[in-house]
Design a protein that fits this description.
Number of domains: 1
Largest sheet: none
Distance between the termini: 26 Å
Amino acid sequence: MQHKEDLIWDNITNSAKRKFDYKDFESSFEEIDIELADTFLFEIIAGFAGGESKELISARLLSQIMLTGFHFDKTEMHKFIDGKEKVLGIEIYATQLARTMLEDGTDVISVLKSINQILN
């Protein structure tokens, strides 16, 4: 069963998928695990929302892939992340807002409504 908070992060990730060629990005994970594409996309958004640099985000994601026993081209990862802080600016802001609201004790439904207003 999915946690209610996961609905927030899923909505943000789904919004981000519409901002670039997600199918092409997803195909990069066919050898590893296609399900990782969503996770990595959200990790990129969450990293920027937390103030991380693209280099730190890239290094963290590449390390996670290496732990699965696969290799992902470092240049391709950098290329994919480059510029995403602008393209995904609304999703990054929605993530920051959702985190703040949840930390302040706002109920999940209210947070979901707030971020959906931002994303739509």
